[in-house]
Write a structure and sequence with these properties.
By secondary structure, this protein is mostly helical. It has 13 helices and no strands.
Length: 322
């Protein structure tokens, strides 16, 4: 197991290095992408451009520029925005991380619990009305766009019925944990539910499909032949093996959402998370912030996949020798 974990950790480090090089080359070495022109502003003279290039190291070879950028980003941690002069990249990202983490972790707990319950209930109710009813709800959840559902929720809770049924709903935005757990959760409960609706439906359908297949496997027939009850067979045998696919899917989804894929939910509910920061930096073509956000996203995606690999190996020991 330790050797397997070491191989996966080394692969994760190499992937992060490759991503950092690729992102740097895309934004700093692509023909026509002149960071000095962005910093100096429009109609800057050639003398000004030369001074900016010398000041920021853009006149050095490309590998040295990469090294300087990584040093300012990870070691000195003083990389500054090209658009908002004097605004450092790391503080912007660290301020946005708690917002995104709060949103995604809360939603993930909800969609995993709902997805597993719906998937197991649909499998147990095969041949009855329970199975199609649950799957219909799953399809509805998958089909609802997050931004549309979020806008409808806001229309109802913030406007139409706010003064009657939803007076308890606070204004849009994020409340830090320092304001109290109750206040923090109250600001996030609707974003959690909105984001979880989509993924709960997906996970319920995937889990149901995997469990139905597992129920026909030889080891399940053997468990039944030994006299083990159907409920125990369903949970201890079919569910455990089916969770391997769910764990893999969860790692990809969770890493992507932490990395900024929850952008639409953040925008609709006024949450200044990493997705919103990335979107704003792309709008302004703020290269240092873009670089920092992309590497942050890549880090969480890679780490999530590393954890999924370890969980996969724990659930299925055969994977350790691959």
């Amino acid at each position: 197991m330790w050797r397997f974990a070491g191989r996966r950790a080394l692969a994760a480090v190499l992937v992060l290095f490759a991503i950092s090089v690729m992102v740097f080359l895309i934004f700093f070495a692509t023909p026509g992408a002149d960071p000095a022109a962005r910093i100096a502003g429009r109609n800057a003279s050639q003398e000004t451009l030369a001074q900016v290039r010398a000041s920021f190291g853009f006149d050095k070879p490309m590998y040295m520029q990469y090294g300087l950028m990584m040093r300012h980003l990870f070691i000195d941690r003083d990389l500054t925005s090209f658009v908002n002069r004097g605004s450092q990249v790391i503080p912007q990202i660290t301020q946005a991380i708690p917002v995104t983490l709060s949103l995604v972790i809360g939603a993930a707990v909800i969609w995993m619990v709902l997805g597993i319950i719906m998937g197991v209930a649909a499998t147990a109710g095969r041949g009855t009305a329970v199975d199609p009813i649950i799957m219909v709800f799953g399809v509805i959840g998958v089909s609802l766009p997050v931004y549309w559902l979020g806008e409808v929720v806001n229309l109802i809770t913030q406007s139409r019925l706010h003064d009657s049924w939803f007076a308890w709903v606070p204004p849009l935005g994020y409340a830090p944990l320092s304001d109290g757990v109750g206040t923090w959760a109250l600001h996030l409960v609707l974003p959690w539910m909105t984001l979880a609706v989509l993924y709960a439906g997906i996970y319920a359908r995937v889990l149901r499909s995997e469990m139905v297949g597992a129920m026909n496997e030889d080891y399940v027939r053997m468990a039944r032949a030994k006299g083990i009850g159907e409920g125990r067979v369903l949970i201890r045998h079919a569910l455990r093996t089916s969770l391997i696919v769910i764990v893999s899917l969860f790692g990809l989804d969770f890493g992507a959402l932490i990395g900024g894929a929850a952008l639409l939910t953040e925008v609709v509910f006024g949450l200044q998370g990493v997705g919103k920061l990335t979107y704003d930096s792309l709008q302004n073509f703020d290269l240092p912030v873009i670089l920092g956000c992309v590497l942050y996203a890549a880090f969480f995606v890679v780490v999530a996949n590393f954890i999924v690999d370890l969980a996969y190996a724990w659930l299925d020991p055969r994977v350790r020798h691959v």
